[in-house]
Structure formats: structure tokens, C-alpha cells
Design brief:
By secondary structure, this protein is an alpha+beta fold. About 35% of the residues lie in helices and about 30% in strands. The protein has a domain at about 175-255: Beta Barrel (Thrombin, subunit H). A 6-stranded antiparallel β-barrel has the order 3-4-7-6-5-14. A 6-stranded antiparallel beta barrel has the order 8-9-10-13-12-11. α2 (about 10-30) crosses α3.
Length: about 280
């Protein structure tokens, strides 16, 4: 104890100088607009750079798992190609491409690759951050997909980075489609229990819901491409106190291991928004 007191007494002047310097520096940052803005911008850039280094190191040690993800993604893409070929028939609605009257096709969705540099999954309202921004054609409202399914929606952007509202967020909902029975009812939400499960409420009791059925995005969404995997049905809760079923699902995306994602732009979203605006004004 006396050693500490003696050390503090011998170094009183340098410690006092250091304290006054830090105190003055804090006052300058808090009450001088230019210095505060400069410090904030530089610190944000520094921490985003550190996040990028950490993300690169993590990805290096998870190469084997990433390889397994790529294999599963290739399988999903093959299934989508077969389904697209069927839907591109003039007798059926198109899922990913609109068909003109002359038989030519137009691209409906454009994909942009990004890396996740920070990922939250322990909060009630989780977000993750990607290394692409407005200068990379990323826009607010774009859907974000993992290699295996739906992951979130872009909510904020800067020049080189973007923040994405994760599916693991209390404000996130997405319309669902169960292709086995052709059901387009209810919305998928996170159940707040763990990172791998969600729920679909208010499903009619008469529906033939079974464990293992796929849950995909429906064509009612103007953000996510129809047919994007959300998860699989894990359990059906049939309560006598409710007139509806509650479906518990297991998410297709592993939110603890988000590394590579795809930002998706609906090329016809402005047209759809214009129609909605005109409808409201009528």
C-alpha cells in the first residue's frame, strides 16, 4: 500500500498533467463541432478496418466449413434453375424473370456480393454490417441473402458500408410460402429463443402442415425474390385456446456463421411503389 502511495506522490506532476490533458481533449471533442466530426469519422473508419481484419482472420480458419456451405449453395442453385425453367413457360407466372409478349425475358433481380464484417445475434434487435455501400450500388431496402436463405434487409448505408436488419430482429417479418400445400398465409418472425428458430402465427387449423416441409418467401414480397428458402417446419403447435395453428420453423441460415451474403435489388420495385402510391391517392 505504501509503495503505491509513494509512487503516486513521486509521479504526481506527470499524472496531473496527463489528467488535465485528457480532460481538455475530451472537452474539445464534445463541444467543438469540427474536431468532434473529424474524430468520429476517423474512429468509425478505424474500427471498420479492424472489423475487416478480424473478419478476414475468422474466414481463414473456417475454410472447411465454408466449403460445405458452397456445396449446399450449389445444390440450391441447381434446384432453382430447374424451377425457373418451369416457371418461364408462357403458361405460368415467372418467379425471377418477367416475360415480354414477344417471348424475350427481362431480368427482375440483380445480385451484389458482400462480406459480413460484424455480426450481432445475442440481442433482441440484431444487425450485421457488410463491406459494401452506396458506391457499390447498395441501397436501403435491398434484401440480403446468405448462401442458404434469407438473412435480412438493408436499413442504413454509407459510401463503403451498410447495416442490415437481421432476421433475428423483433421488427423483422417476411411473408411465407409453403409450396407442398400451396399455402401463402402468415409471416415468419423470430421467436427470441435461439438463433436457429422462428414462428409463423395465425395458420388455419384445416391446413395440412407437416414437419420437414419447406418454408420459402412468397411472391407477395416486393423485397425478397419468391422461392428463397427461409427454413423448414420443425413443429406444429395446436392449442385449444386458439383458433389458429402456430408453426415453429428452423431457419435455413446459420446466423452465427454469416460470412458471405448477397444483396438483392428488385429492378421493378419503383414501378410497384408507384402503383401503390397511385392506389392510395385514388
Amino acid at each position: 500500500m505504501w509503495v503505491i502511495i509513494r509512487w503516486l506522490r513521486n509521479n504526481a506532476y506527470p499524472l496531473t498533467t496527463l489528467f488535465l490533458f485528457l480532460f481538455s481533449f475530451n472537452l474539445v471533442l464534445r463541444y467543438q463541432v469540427y474536431q468532434h466530426s473529424l474524430y468520429f469519422n476517423q474512429s468509425v473508419s478505424f474500427f471498420r478496418t479492424v472489423d475487416g481484419w478480424r473478419s478476414s482472420l475468422t474466414q481463414y480458419f473456417e475454410l472447411r466449413e465454408e466449403n460445405n456451405y458452397l456445396k449446399e449453395e450449389n445444390l440450391i442453385l441447381r434446384k432453382q434453375l430447374a424451377r425457373n425453367y418451369f416457371y418461364h413457360s408462357p403458361s405460368f407466372d415467372s418467379t425471377f424473370v418477367d416475360t415480354n409478349t414477344n417471348g424475350a425475358s427481362r431480368l427482375a433481380y440483380r445480385y451484389h456480393h458482400a462480406n459480413v464484417i460484424r455480426n450481432e445475434f445475442r440481442k433482441r434487435d440484431n444487425y450485421f454490417y457488410i463491406n459494401q455501400g452506396s458506391l457499390d450500388s447498395i441501397e436501403v431496402g435491398m434484401a440480403v441473402l446468405s448462401p442458404l436463405g434469407a438473412a435480412g434487409i438493408v436499413t442504413h448505408i454509407s459510401d463503403h458500408y451498410a447495416r442490415v436488419m437481421s432476421v433475428l430482429n423483433s421488427n423483422f417479418e417476411i411473408t411465407s410460402w409453403i409450396p407442398n400445400i400451396g399455402l401463402r398465409q402468415g409471416a415468419v418472425k423470430w421467436d427470441f429463443k435461439n438463433t436457429s428458430s422462428g414462428i409463423i402465427d395465425e395458420i388455419n387449423r384445416s391446413e395440412a402442415i407437416k414437419k420437414g416441409q419447406d418454408v420459402l418467401t412468397s411472391n407477395y414480397s416486393s423485397i425478397f425474390p419468391p422461392g428463397t428458402p427461409i427454413g423448414k417446419i420443425d413443429r406444429v403447435v395446436n392449442s385449444e385456446k386458439s383458433q389458429y395453428l402456430q408453426i415453429r420453423i428452423l431457419f435455413a441460415t446459420d446466423f452465427k456463421r454469416l460470412n458471405h451474403v448477397y444483396c438483392v435489388k428488385n429492378l421493378f420495385s419503383k414501378t410497384l411503389d408507384q402503383l401503390k402510391t397511385e392506389e392510395l391517392n385514388d
